[in-house]
Amino acid sequence: MRKLFKNILIFQSGEPTHFDKLHKPMRLVNLANSLIGKGHKVKVITSLFFHQEKKFRTVDQSCFYNNDQIEYNFIKSPGYKKNISITRIIDHFFLAYNLSKKLKKLKNIDLAIVGFPPIETSYVLARWCKKMKIPYIVDFKDLWPELFINNKNFFFKILIYPYYLLSSYLRNYVLMNSTHVSMISENFIQNISHKKKIVCYLTKKKTQNQIIHINKKIKDIFLNTKKKKIIFIGNFMEDAYDFAILNKIKKYIIGSKKFEFHFFGEGPSKIKFMKILNFENIFFHGRANSHEFDFILNKSSAVFLPIKNRFDYLRSVPNKVIDAIQYKLPIFTSLKGDTEKIINKYNIGYVYSNHEDLKYKLEKFFEYEFFIKISDNYNNKDIKSEFDHDLNYRKLLDKI
Asked: pLDDT tens across 176-193, in order?
């Protein structure tokens, strides 16, 4: 007989927790909330190192949240400064070792949800689940180890090849022994049976933003309606985004009386982009908290996502695209693949091929007020159901 209420273990590394209140909730928080909403008990294991801020959390290593409904266990690791680096691999090995010690003390788990990557921790959990005869679902979010060696020089690839082979083996073990694999698009993982796949977009539940947590400068910018606001919220990384394309249409942007760009976030390439785009109608700001995130998206006219056509992005629908869809915002992006298919399917934005094409589509959008038409396209019932928060997480919950 199927157990109605279960004790569920979630391992996710690199995501905000319930204690990181000013950060946008991601899979860990949303999934834990959905599970306790269905009456399940949730244990969370995650890293004490906070990936988004590259610093260590100041919380107890064992603590509870929401009247003891969610038990948190934070495990130590050395940390790292760069997302793709040797130090991050070292961090993951320490994380996996400390996770294995934590699992020895864990009892009464009916199901595990394994966040992938890190590969090393996923393998430790998969082996533990197999030994304990516990079914597990893999929440597959990034194409490791391929992402680690992408665009690296020949000598680096030779040096790191043993790690690549080991990681590929570990990943195959994790996937093959799982009951299901959740992924962010249908084509994200191709060598896995269709029966195992659960396509679950990283949607977020829209909440009423608390005005007290919104910077006055941000309020003033977005309550001024003289110009339409095109926005970006995220980390500035040169290997992921091509903001420099705006420099090629500099005269057009400076002369615009209809729109302006506002970019929010931090990141290793921010200063470089700020120097390149140091002209009128382009504004850079700091990181937006979760309340500001809601406020900004609710008050914006479009989202600018100059995402490079990297192999992993082509096979996925990035979080920022999902955010734009949930807030019914037109999308300007250079990304093809699965993202382009969704944009064209529902006619909710523009995929540009070069700077001249971007300029043409901006002119078309604002001069002919196409933003009104695109807003109407979001009323399509198919897009509402495909990206509905509750329906997306129900796909996972139905497998539990």
From this structure: 999 999 988 877 877 777
- Give the 3-state secondary structure of residue 52: coil
Closest CA to 300 of 331, 345, 273: 331
In the beta sheet, which residues pair with residue 285?
264
CB 340 within 8 A of CB 316: no
User: Is 119 in a helix, a strand, or coil?
Assistant: helix
Backbone φ, ψ for residue 183 (5° rounding): -145, 165
CATH of 7-200 among 3.90.1150.10, 3.40.640.10, 3.30.428.10, 3.40.50.2000: 3.40.50.2000
The whole-angstrom separation of Cα 121 and Cα 127 is 10
Is the bond leading into 117 cis (omega within 30 degrees of zero)?
A: yes
Count, in order, helices (H) and strands (E) of the chain. 16, 16
Task: Tell whether domain 211-386 is in CATH 3.40.50.2000.
Answer: yes
pTM for the whole structure: 0.85
**294/240 Cα distance (integer angstroms):** 23
pLDDT in tens, 342-399: 999 999 999 999 999 999 999 988 876 666 678 788 888 888 888 888 888 888 888 8
Fold matches, 7-200 and 211-386 = yes
Nearest to 304 by CA among 247, 230, 366: 230
> What does the block give as tokens for 36?
């306790």
Report the Cα–Cα distance between both ends of the chain, in Å, rounded.
13
Helix (H) or strand (E) holding 270: helix 270-276
Q: Where are the domains of the chain?
A: 7-200, 211-386
